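Table 4 source record.
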Amino acid sequence: MDQKKNKPERPFYIPPKNVPTPSEIISDAKRSIKNPRSLPTKRPFTPRDERRSLFPTTTCRNPDSRPPSAFSLSSKHFDGPESRPVSGARLIPLDHTPQIPELDSSESTCSPLPPKPPTDPNKTQRKYTRNSRLYSGNSVEESTKTVKTSSLTDLSKQVKAPDSEPPKRVNSGPKERTPVEGREETQPIPLEERGEGDGKEMPHRAPSSAAVRSPPRSAGSREESRVGSGGSKRTSSAGSTGRTGSAGKREVEETPEEASFYTDHIAPLLEKMTVSAKKKEADHVVKFTDELYTILLKENLLGKNCKRRSVILKTIFKILDLDDPKVLLRLARLILSFKVSGNNLTSVCKLVFKVSRNEKNDPQFLRGDILDLLLETVRNTDPVSSSEALIYCVGAIKFMTGNTKIVKELVKKDCIEALANLLIGINKTNRENTKPNDQLGHILVQLTAAMRNLADASSSRERLLNSKGLESLCYVIDTYTADGDLMLNISRIFSKVTLHTDCCMALITQPSAYKSFIHLLNKQQHKADVVVRVCFILGNMTAKNDDARLRLFQENKSMEALLAIMKYYLDRDIKIRSREKEKETSKQDSSKGNDCEDVLIKTVRVVANMSINEMVGPVLASNQQFVELLLNILECKDVQSSEELSLNTVATINNLSFYNTKTSAITDQQMRIIEVLLKMVLADNMEAMVESSRVFGNLTRQKCVRDYLVENKVDQMMITMLDSGNREVVYIACGVLINFMVDDENRSVLKKDGGIAKLVEVLRDFAKTDWELASMVCQILWNYSVKITSTNSCFGEQESKDLNDVLLELLDRECAFEDLDDEDEEMKHFFQDTWSEDFCPVATQLLQRMESYSSDLEPIESPSES
């Protein structure tokens, strides 16, 4: 209600802004018949990619630098306590381990010297044994444990290496540990808890203070013991209870209520999930996973609020080896809900991507809130530090936008806004750097592909405009012009949205749009799929706005770019066609030929639309190179096999022929143009005849053209077209006949071929709804009767009577507007204006001429008086 009140009220009699009135529509339609006009065309065909892959099969990306579409993924690729701080560098394993001799009470207190230390005393080295249960140099954690006993402590005080400092022992603390992708990160386990051994007696260990403080474990079993056991002073972000962090700060301890809740509700579900997974009972795993998610959500224990977060995650990670899409997607939902980061975020995004690659799994994404979690990941993930995670996350969304049901849900959940915000963030990062980031480019390929599919959804255009999506895409063009995959996606987006006036106007007013598109045409000139769409976009912009025509023409080297494209693809098309005739081409080459023709169609349309502007048109008409290219197209193509290209080219020549300037290249080449058009007229194609007749209407202003067309019986053809019943065809024929009637030697054919009677019928059929056409009929008859001596002999007796009756009826105001009762006031005013301004002046003069020469009888003299 508030929004309606805030809107300014508009009086009903004032037409809304930017909405043409009926009279304007009719006037524009009439002007388009003889004046320059914009050309329609179909949007370039985009085949659906049935194969779901990260990048298209024809990608220009280096396989070594781009992320793979197919990969192996298992529980080993997830880390345990995933958010442990890392240093970015790992310690080098020790190659040398001092051998500590066993002590005997009977021996002397003096001990033999230890082995020689490493050459570099600062370079610690370590030899791993099977009992240490540590990974090799590629392990997730390369940690060590210092074995301490009272006897060994005394021994270390007595033993010293000669002539050298004692070797330093380096214990890798939490800040020096870096998880490695592809391995499971594991907490160090106290030696007395480890079940592995090689049969040798293990040295005695004194329990650490942390182990003493640890409460008894009932529900967490061995896994919980490993994560939260003593001996390790590391702090997990999952919130293990009662431990001291590396900075000496004590974490918030788990309350008895929290521990009881975990034991009673969460731990049993985790156990059931694990047992069901081992038995490969996927439905049971799904059931228990949903129950666990519901409980955690209800108790607000998702995110990083749960103190047993790492324990739950470790259990989930172990179940990921169960290869069932329903299970994997449920587990991915849980992992994403815990707000994982780093390697785990990348792995879970890969997991979702892997599931989304199969179209059969699409219904699973409509269950639960997995779509919300993916969009939340898009909104909250840093594209620089987590670029790989976003590549696969947005890639999964891209796959799902191929499903119409999921598209509707994504649009409702503000997916377009989320992608637009990510796009803005990436642009901001690229502005701050001197060179665009390749990894960000990989994200943009997925993002723009998803936007391309979402652009067809309802309300998508409004969302794109409100989120500044179009503006951001223009900046991407300038930043990644050489990226063929990215440019193809963006051109597909614009080719869709510019079919609609609102988006087209937004792009027209974008200052950098013209420069960006011209730069893209120059950079990607040989990529037909990009060029054809960019030209289609420019054609849409110039079709709907006169300012766009002028701004595009004034853009630096815009015409050079368009002409270069026309020449390149025309030459390429000619070569391919010549090979086809020699039967040396393959089917693939034939498709390339079609691509060339499509590019020519869209490029010619751009220039045709630009020529509508009164400043641009005369300049283009004087461009010899451009006119020559148009004629080459008509001479190389025929209307049967290349109908749209031929018709667009003729329409472009018609637009240019409107400007009858001294420097016009159309005038210089007019006889050549007429010869080419006559071939199209003789073809059995009504549209070709109409388009050619438009050009005849402009070129017949020249006497030499009229004479040549009369020799080829084009005047008779125009008279025949009066019977078509099509208003546009009749209008064009009348325009040509007006010019033919200027020459005295060409007038007789009008009466001879029954043209007078046909013109009278045109007045009866169309006059009351088209006074401009009625005016043209009267002009033809006026030019025809310029040397009249008798009305009946000039027009014919019956034709004169019919014409006189029709003119009298049409000049009577009441009769002329008797059929307008159902029309609104605006239409009535429009018809009345055109009747009084266009029709009445010429019709009145014609009627007066006919009445002046209406009798062939000589006056009778009065008899003389007798």
